[in-house]
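Weekly modeling sync, notes
Attendees: S.R. (lead), two postdocs, one rotation student

Agenda item 3: backlog of single-chain predictions. S.R. asked that every request posted to the team notebook include the full sequence so nobody has to chase files. The rotation student volunteered to paste the first one in as an example of the format we agreed on. Action items at the bottom.

Example entry:
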Amino acid sequence: MEGAGNELQITVKLQGRTATAALAGEFDLTAAQGVRQELDGLIDGGHRRLVVDLRKVPFIDSSGLGVLLGRYRRLSELGGEMFLVGAQHAVRTVLEMSGVPQVVPVLRSESEVPR
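Predicted structure, as returned to the notebook:
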């Protein structure tokens, strides 16, 4: 998803059945639909392992949380798995306050993703 200004950017790296989606920008209501479509496209394309890189996301709201939890649910129903990596302090705090780490693995870096 390419855009100008403050629009969230997504860079996808594919390796076998694993897709890594690196997000950059604010993950809010404005960005939620585009991210949902991009991640759903990866899942629909057969990727059953999704790594969402949040290193360059300074802010996430309930819309962003909903997208992440919804994709996790879809993958789980398909026998897949999802990992969130590299969340900055502010985003990690929101994830923790929302109980996301009890559902989706939240790791410090991509190197911690089980192989």
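Discussion: group reviewed the output briefly. The first strand starts at residue 9 and ends at 15.
Action items: rotation student to repeat for the remaining queue; S.R. to check formatting next week.
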